[in-house]
Amino acid sequence: QLQLVESGGGLVQPGGSLRLSCVASGINPNYPAIGWFRQAPGKEREGVACISSPAIHTDYADSVKGRFIISRDTAVDTVYLQMNNLKVDDSAVYYCAASKYRLCPNDLNFTGYFNSWGPGTQVTVSS
Predict the structure, then answer these.
(1) pLDDT digits over 22-35, tens only?
(2) Phi, psi (5° rounding) for residue 111?
(3) Is the distance from CB of 26 to CB of 13 less than 8 angstroms?
(4) Contact 101, 115 (CB under 8 A)
(5) Per residue in 52-88, pLDDT tens?
(6) Nearest 5 degrees, angle CA 65-CA 32-CA 73?
């Protein structure tokens, strides 16, 4: 399993932007697909985006399509989530997770597909 650490969360106004980072360490940190998830208070954890390895395929939840961009830089073992035009409903703790596989799952919400998780970073969108 990999060790993952997220960063880049914070407080931002509606319409603003944030870039989250997920740094992986361990054996073959660039091997697996990486997903971003989020969980708001009282809600289930939901899949936000996923990127395959190599970074040929990406997938997004409908709620973030056109606003979020997932990317990876293998030189620094990091996956990014660029979040633009943020909305209040985007507020949540954001987690990155590594799969055992190179491809993203058919269902972004399938948390069981991922076996390594970071501790999360808080994103708050508020005026």
Answers:
(1) 999 988 888 899 99
(2) -65, -25
(3) no
(4) no
(5) 999 889 999 999 999 999 999 999 999 999 999 999 9
(6) 65
